[in-house]
Design a protein that fits this description.
The complex is a heterotrimer. By secondary structure, chain B is mostly helical. Chain B is built from eleven helices and two strands. Chain B has a two-stranded antiparallel ribbon. In chain C, 68% of the residues lie in helices and 1% in strands. Classes of the chains: A alpha/beta, B mainly alpha, C mainly alpha.
Chain lengths: 397, 306, 348
């Protein structure tokens, strides 16, 4: 097979890396990180946020993890499991990265999991948190610094329950994540479900569903509609005047800065749950938010905060094993200990590699400068774990 | 199933259908007259929405944004036609698919490069932002009524244009028999550019009108493009009347399906099965409709070619 | 043109050679290759084959072992594209739903694995048969239409299958199905090795390719191409046009299913996104790029498209712009695909 110039470059890098990462007992002289994220197509905004957050953390630590220089290889997964799988293969087999991160969507994560775990590469998830990897298919090489997919929905469920709403209308797309989302909500909400609708992923117009919601007489609405779907729904919800009679709830990622920028005023008054907010007062977060705005000219979303934390975790882990990346058992222990300062304050891992953390209620209002943004109201869950940890029988390394 | 729900769903179906008509009209004209499959039609819709949103945000006026956005997109359409698409008319459909698909890829990236990867804001004008009370106890979003009005007006204007003007006569001639129209001395090149620019303007109108309801983001054209193709195939290629009736049919069937099917399935199959099967059936209902129409009337319902 | 190839037979109700005269004329036809024949180009083909066979060894030697997997994927897509070319290029049926058959084959393999059957032969055979069955069903309905209506109706059916699989939680829905391991080939070949799997894919691809070439140069292939050129005339002569087209459609679908099963095994993963219309579009683009109606069209198109994608995406995240620019250039400069530049064939 003819090698084109770029492939020669890859080869040179790979050869160099091979010489660098010689044997298990020797310390490496650099850290290679593979970031596989959605950088093109409709979901690209999320992947770019993760990448930017990660890069900012890298800048804050001087381009080094644990004192070793970092080589970051960024690749596009196109949100397609098939193409992502091949790119993941290249990153672990050809580029021989030490860590991987970046995947946004759960279906892509499930596709790339096997080659990454089989090559004994640690994956620090900055977003995707499928229940399969929390429970029955848990893996020692998988860690998630964001949340398990159900957690944010559970937090809203509890909020709606605590706020005393009696009848709730639910809406999610018709695919497993949608069903899981509403199942998570229902785990903590014990009132009456006035209507529960699953719409096709391609659906753009929610007129029919809005009419049904109005007819059902619900006093609160909970939606799980990722990305553009959520934007569509919120605009139409407010346009139909339903926001006067029903309170709108959603998970944090459907109500973060990117959606606010796209919807604007109609979003005022929407409640959402999150594990992070930009107005959290700890010093790490303040620095993160200020520098992110300075460097990228926009307010960070929770995706950016997750990318930032993933880098911080890697930094701490490499530092704790003193650069000895070949010792997988020690590295795992260092990662699992999570001795890093997260932008959300205290952070620790559960036995299945998912976080045990607090979840907060946020509402969208105008801040002191008149900008429309999230404001943290109160804590919903303290030290909350995911519901699938019981099913996990962690295999050996 | 109260009367009000039925009324509301009927209006929803009408509005959704008219939304699709705005897009399908341009597509069917281009296909019928120039015999060109244009996959970049969705890209013009996206560019139109972005231009309307930017101008509206910058100037503070939705109407100005709409007007200027339509003009700008028509200009872009004309330029595109003159430079690239003109060479594809003589080619077979497959080359057109490849060429317009290439343009689709390039416009997606161009828009992303200019406006970034995040969706941008486009909201309805304040006057139309809330619901109006049509009947005691029944409110309907004012903006959707506005869409219905604009859709009907656009249909009316297009009808007048096509049926009552000289230009329209040439368009109809070109749609039913291109060679004959050429032989009769129609200035085909100018006609084609004009038709394409008109189609682009309609795309921008659709994009600007739908922007306040849907997300303005990269790739927004693809999802609606398929629906537009379904509409023109059902309605019959090349005829505006077919596009209108096809769009209304699709709009009503889709809305009715999304309401009645879960309702009916719940009564027949029980809630669990209904929850998994219902939405799947509702999603494919439009395609089943198209397959059925093509099976019984392969030329569509109101084809332009006799 | 094509008239000289098909000699009207006395008994016009069958395409088979019923008389010795007809048989003799058909036999004599085979000796002189005509416009409807597609030579294998032995010299180029053999060199290519040798290069492909040596690829894993060379790749390992250069330390580029990863690219064996890439080559497997390219070959699988070449197989799928060739199956589409059979009906699109040689049959004149523009199917916009071909990815659905790939998906059916992939799911057949995945579902078998989920139920505990690990034999490669069973999986491949079932994928072939299942995809062929779906193609029979879809083709029987779709082939009543022509032109753009046929394009749309095949698209519709593919979308229906896609939405169906997305909602079926038993088989993973949108999250897809994971295959725990690769299948057993039972010759002692361990398919989990990249190189072994590559040889399986290569063997199948070559077998299918040669088979398609033989088919195209046979009576059936000639008839199919003649139907593509002028369906009315063929019907007037007395060929059962619909049956021929359906047969080609079913065969193409079955071969696509085979590619799907291989793809599922390669990635260890099946997902409904394999069946989306954008995937069908990608297959069509590959065929058009390589050369519609050229024997090597599917292969060339798949190789160029996938290599271009791989190279461009490693340069910039705006790689789709570059891809679009290249495709546009090809459309404007090489009107009938890349192969037409080399071979200067008469366009169909």
């Amino acid at each position: 097979m003819k090698t084109i110039d770029l492939k020669s470059l890859h080869f040179a890098l790979a050869a160099a890396a091979l010489f660098c990462l010689a044997g298990p007992a020797q310390a490496a002289d650099k850290v290679k990180v593979g970031m596989l994220s959605t950088l093109s197509g409709p979901g690209a905004g999320l992947g770019i946020d993760i990448r930017d957050g990660f890069n900012l953390a890298l800048k804050h630590s001087g381009g080094k993890f644990g004192g070793l220089p970092v080589e970051l290889i960024v690749a596009d997964d196109q949100a397609k499991p098939d193409a992502a799988r091949q790119t993941a293969d290249r990153l672990v087999k050809q580029d021989k990265v030490d860590f991987m991160t970046g995947v946004v969507f759960s279906n892509v994560m499930l596709a790339v999991g096997k080659p990454i775990f089989d090559s004994k590469t640690f994956y620090i998830s900055a977003n995707a948190g499928p229940s399969q990897l929390a429970g029955a298919q848990c893996n020692p090489y998988f860690f998630n610094v964001a949340w398990q997919n159900d957690n944010l929905h559970e937090a809203v469920g509890k909020t709606v329950q605590d706020k005393g709403f009696k009848k709730v209308a639910l809406l999610a797309p018709n695919y497993p994540a949608g069903k899981d989302a509403l199942a998570g909500f229902k785990r903590y909400f014990k009132g009456e479900i006035a209507s529960e609708a699953y719409t096709p992923l391609s659906q753009l117009d929610y007129g029919a569903e809005l009419s049904k919601m109005r007819a059902s007489g619900a006093d609160a609405v909970y939606i799980f509609l990722p990305g553009g779907l959520g934007i569509n729904f919120i605009k139409q919800f407010v346009g139909a005047g339903l926001s006067k009679d029903m309170t709108l709830f959603g998970p944090g990622f459907s109500a973060d800065e990117d959606v606010i920028r796209a919807v604007g005023e109609p979003m005022l008054g929407m409640f959402n749950s999150s594990q992070w907010a930009h107005d959290m007062q700890n010093p790490v977060n303040k620095r993160f938010v200020a520098d992110f705005q300075k460097d990228y000219g926009r307010m960070p979303t929770l995706y950016a905060s997750q990318g930032y934390d993933a880098a911080r975790l890697m930094d701490a882990a490499v530092r704790d094993v003193k650069g000895n990346l070949g010792d997988k058992a020690a590295l795992r222990k260092a990662i699992a200990a999570a001795k890093f300062d997260s932008v959300r304050g205290a952070f620790k891992f559960n036995s299945n590699g998912y976080p045990i953390q607090d979840y907060y209620l946020r509402v969208i209002t105008r801040d002191a400068q008149g900008r429309i943004t999230n404001r943290t109201l109160n804590t919903v869950f303290k030290d909350h774990a995911d519901a699938y940890v019981g099913e996990c029988k962690m295999p050996a390394l | 199933m109260t009367g009000i729900l039925v009324l509301e769903q009927s209006l929803n179906g009408l509005q959704f259908g008219l939304m699709l008509f705005l897009l399908a009209a341009g597509l069917t004209l281009v296909f019928g007259i120039m015999d060109m499959i244009n996959l970049a039609h969705g890209s013009l819709y996206m560019i139109g929405a972005y231009l309307v949103a930017s101008i509206a945000l910058g100037s503070g006026s939705f109407w100005l944004g709409l007007a200027l956005g339509m003009a700008a997109t028509a200009a872009i359409g004309a330029v595109l036609e003159l430079t690239v698409l003109r060479r594809l008319y003589q080619r077979d459909h497959l080359s057109q698919v490849l060429g317009t698909f290439a343009i689709l890829l390039m416009s997606n990236e161009a828009v992303r490069w200019l406006w970034g990867s995040q969706p941008i804001e486009l909201n309805p004008p304040a006057a139309l932002a809330g619901p109006v009370e049509l009947l005691p106890g029944f409110s309907y979003p004012a903006y959707r009524l506005f869409i219905i009005a604009v859709g009907l007006a656009a249909a009316g204007v297009l009808y007048l244009l096509v049926a009552r003007t000289r230009l329209g006569m040439q368009v109809r001639a070109g749609a039913s028999n291109r060679e004959m129209a050429l032989a009769m001395g129609v200035d085909v090149r100018r006609l084609f550019t004009l038709v394409f620019a008109m189609g682009a303007a309609l795309c921008a109108l659709a994009g600007g009108m739908l922007g306040p309801l849907l997300a303005v983001q990269v790739g927004m054209g693809e999802s609606i493009l398929i629906l537009a193709f379904v509409v023109i195939v059902i309605g019959g290629i090349g005829s505006i009347r077919g596009a209108l009736l096809g769009a209304l049919l699709v709009g009503v069937v889709d809305t009715a399906g999304r309401t009645l099917i879960p309702y009916g399935f719940e009564r027949l199959l029980g809630p669990d099965l209904a929850a998994s099967v219902g939405p799947a059936v509702a999603a494919i209902l439009i395609y089943v409709l198209m397959a059925a129409v093509l099976f019984f009337r392969p030329q569509g319902l109101f084809p332009a070619h006799g | 043109m094509a008239d000289t190839e098909i000699k009207p037979v006395e008994r016009v109700d069958t395409a088979k050679a019923a008389t010795p005269v007809a048989a003799a004329s058909l036999a004599s036809m085979r000796l002189a290759p005509g416009l409807l024949d597609h030579p294998l180009h032995w010299r180029t083909g053999l060199v290519l084959l040798i290069a492909l066979v040596l690829l894993p060894t060379l790749a390992q030697a250069w330390g580029q072992g990863f690219y064996v997997g890439v080559a497997s994927r390219i070959l699988i897509f070449a197989l799928a594209a060739t199956s589409l070319n059979l009906i699109l290029g040689f049959g004149g049926m523009v199917s916009f739903g071909h990815a659905a058959f790939v998906g059916v084959g992939a799911y057949a393999a995945g579902i078998l694995m989920q139920h505990g059957f690990a034999s490669a032969w069973l999986a491949l055979a079932l994928a072939f048969v299942a995809a062929g069955a779906f193609a029979l069903l879809i083709g029987a309905i779709s082939l009543r239409t022509r032109g753009v209506y046929f394009i749309m109706i095949t698209l519709a059916f593919a979308q229906m299958l896609y939405y169906l699989m997305v909602s079926l939680k038993t088989y993973g829905g949108d999250d897809g199905l994971s295959l725990d391991s690769r299948f057993d080939l039972a010759f002692g070949l361990d398919l989990s090795q990249d190189a072994s799997f590559y040889y399986l894919v290569l063997a199948l691809a070559v077998a299918v390719f040669v088979g398609v070439q033989r088919l195209l140069n046979s009576r059936f292939g000639h008839a199919l191409q003649a139907i593509r050129d002028n369906e009315t005339r063929m019907a007037a002569i007395g060929f059962p046009v619909l049956r021929f087209k359906l047969l080609a459609f079913v065969l193409a679908g079955a071969l696509a299913g085979l590619a799907g099963a291989l793809l599922a095994q390669l990635g260890g993963f099946v997902s409904p996104s394999m069946m989306q219309w954008s995937e069908s579009g990608m297959l069509m683009v590959m065929v058009i790029l390589g050369g519609v109606g050229h024997l090597y069209g599917g292969l060339v198109g798949a190789v160029v498209f996938l290599v271009l994608e791989e190279v461009l995406s490693s340069i910039t995240i705006h790689w789709q712009f570059g891809l679009g620019a290249v495709l546009l250039a090809v459309v404007l400069l090489a009107p009938n695909g890349l192969l037409s530049l080399r071979l200067r064939r008469q366009s169909p």
